[in-house]
Design goal:
Chain A has seven helices and five strands; from the N terminus they run H-E-H-E-H-E-H-H-E-H-E-H. With about 170 residues, chain A is of the alpha/beta class. Chain B has about 45 residues and is mostly beta strands. Chain B is extended, with a radius of gyration of 14 Å. The chains are: A alpha/beta (about 170), B mainly beta (about 45).
Chain lengths: ~170, ~45
């Protein structure tokens, strides 16, 4: 279940005593099933949201996704009124298709984090995609970071946590 | 403390592997962190 970016975010929430859940998509790690090109993965995220609300009895949920996880995770923002907003780290708009851009539209607070050396979630197209989203929204460009955030994980995680505190 | 969780998706025969950290304040705003898919990071 390790990824440098998600682990940095997980650690900063844990160190601040905030409940958090991370999981492996279907067909990844010890999760069963097969990859289903997005449809099933959306169900995976919704199942996690329901798990937090119904079984862990949390009152509200904040979503943070990275790369493909940003596209899928942020696309469930309207699944429940208990979701207060999201932080997207390197949303791969250009290769994931327009469906997830539309699904991730919401009138809830949104943070978009982007590395200025990212050529996967291409930085050159960031502003065009960002402009699509309605307010409230904000963005943070991390100078020097590419799509994989080597050496910049902590900075990205701190931005996510700052945003979380500002909207909770 | 981190709890290892496994749960089934409703109406689906799929089990998800997860890790959950429970805060001391059970009614806070929980964070759901969504990983990249390994298939899409093989770029």
């Amino acid at each position: 279940m390790y990824n440098n970016v998600v682990s940095a975010v997980f650690n900063i929430f844990m160190s601040n005593d905030i409940s958090c859940l991370r999981f492996n998509f279907r067909a990844v790690g010890r999760s069963t099933g097969n990859h289903s090109s997005g449809r099933g993965e959306l169900s995976d995220v919704k199942a996690c949201i329901d798990f937090l609300i119904n079984l862990k009895k949390v009152e509200k949920v904040f979503i943070c996704g990275y790369s493909y996880g940003a596209a899928i995770g942020c696309s469930t923002v309207n699944h429940s009124e208990k979701i207060i907003g999201y932080a997207s780290i390197s949303f791969p708009w250009d290769f994931i298709g327009p469906k997830y851009k539309k699904l991730s539209q919401a009138d809830k607070p949104k943070l978009f984090i982007q590395g200025d050396r990212d050529d996967v979630a291409n930085f050159n197209n960031f502003q065009k995609h960002y402009d699509f989203y309605s307010n409230p929204k904000e963005h943070k460009i991390i100078k020097g970071a590419d799509h994989f955030y080597g050496g910049y994980e902590r900075q990205a995680a701190e931005e996510v946590f700052r945003f979380y505190k500002s909207i909770k | 403390m981190i709890e290892n969780e496994e749960f089934f998706i409703n109406n689906d025969d799929i089990k998800l592997e997860a890790e959950f950290f429970q805060s001391s304040s059970k009614t806070d705003v929980a964070a759901l962190l969504v990983h990249p898919h390994p298939q899409f990071l093989r770029i």
